[in-house]
Amino acid sequence: MSCASCSSNGSGSPRGCKNNGTCGTDSCNKLTVFDWLGNMQIPQGTSAFNIVEVRFKNSRKGFYALPEDIKVAVGDPVITAVENGYDLGLVTLTGELVRFQMKKKKVAEDSDEVTKIIRKATQAEIDKWHALRDKEPQIQKRARELAIALQLEMKLSDVEFQADGKKATFYYTAENRVDFRQLIKDMAQAFSIRIEMRQIGLRQEASRLGGIGSCGRELCCSTWLTDYRSVSTSAARYQQLSLNPLKLAGQCGKLKCCLNYELDAYRSALRNFPKSEVKLKTEKGIAVFQKMDIFKEQLWYTYKGEWMNWHQLSLDSVLEIIEKNKNNETVPSLEEYTDDIPIATGEKPAMNFENVVGQDSLNRFDQPKKPNNKRRKKRNRNRRQNNA
Question: 59, 210, 267, 292 — which has fewest CB within 10 A?
């Protein structure tokens, strides 16, 4: 499924919209839902679900009732009814899976949020829609200039035109309350359209604009994630991550949502581990916790006063020592429970490198050097002259 900008040209080569999946004219992997019920036939005696999911620019979606005389498929442009006009969107989901989506988002079938689809979009309406999309960057730039002139502490991140060209919605982010009444008057006078200002959060802004995360993939909030759960620094502590805000923060400036993905697995694994403040009592001295490897079930302890020497112990050995300490038993030393040599943090372990590319030389593809016959002839001539 592709939009007109992403389709191929006359010669068959892909045209491409140069927006890297964020053009807003079709799905382009923006919250796309795979219809796993699409190849299943409807049972006899039942009618198809008459509500479809329609997506507008970026990640804005809605549910719309389908008239009986209209049949649509995924990707069809349709005209939807809005207040004092109409809007154009693309059908992204049909059939019974829409019912599951409505139940997931807690939208009732008779809710006021479910409006009607008027008709399929004509070619003239699609062309007008594309023309309005092309105007949005210029309008956004001019609106930012007006906001800067009024010294408003806000960031206009996106502009969305209504398909009939009568209304434009400006999405902005701000830390404090912003009085933009004068800004609306200036923009209405400059653009001659109705203006709507809508404040969104930083995560919603990243979802609308899209981008590539540090993992090399598209942002989760832009492709499939719809519920933004709170992320705390304790999630990083559970996973033994460095509390570096530059590495833990996403493009929105908040903590990355992916910190919650494996949090439950780490928390369930940590149930068997002792707390970090528990000390091990030995005849050689008291051992203090340093770090752990959760999935390898390895822990590192060091004696008080010998902070440079770390001793690696297995989880079973640590639990055995703790159990003996509870029974007022003191183990001789940590060395009896590990076969590894204590690692001194100030020393670097020896590294054995292997030839992973085979035994061939790195310059095997270089052209061989030609022998310098001129230098050799000159050397022989000098020798003959000296002998003479």
Answer: 267
CA separation for the pair 147, 129 (Å, rounded): 26
CATH second-level architecture of 128-204? Answer: 2-Layer Sandwich (3.30)
Alpha carbon distances (Å) from 162 to 89, 153, 187: 10, 26, 16
Q: Are 91 and 54 spatial neighbours (Cβ–Cβ below 8 Å)?
A: yes
Neighbours of 172 (CB within 10 A): 22
Dihedral sign computed on CA atoms, order 368, 373, 374, 378: positive
Instruction: Tell me the pLDDT tens digit for each residue of 322-358.
Output: 999 999 888 888 888 875 544 545 555 566 656 555 5
Which stretches within the chain are classed as H helix?
96-104, 123-149, 181-191, 202-209, 220-223, 233-238, 245-248, 263-269, 315-326, 373-387
DSSP class of 357: T
Residue carrying structure tokens 């219809």: 35
Q: Could you report how far apart the first and last alpha carbons of the chain are, in Å? A: 89
Exposure string over 216-230, b if 16+ CB within 10 A, otherwise e = eebbbbbbebeebee
**pLDDT: which is higher, 75 or 1:** 75
**Which 3 state secondary structure label does DSSP give 290?**
strand
User: At 274, phi and psi to the nearest 5?
Assistant: -75, 160
* Ranges of CATH 3.30.300 domains, the chain: 128-204
Tally of CB atoms within 10 A around 358: 7
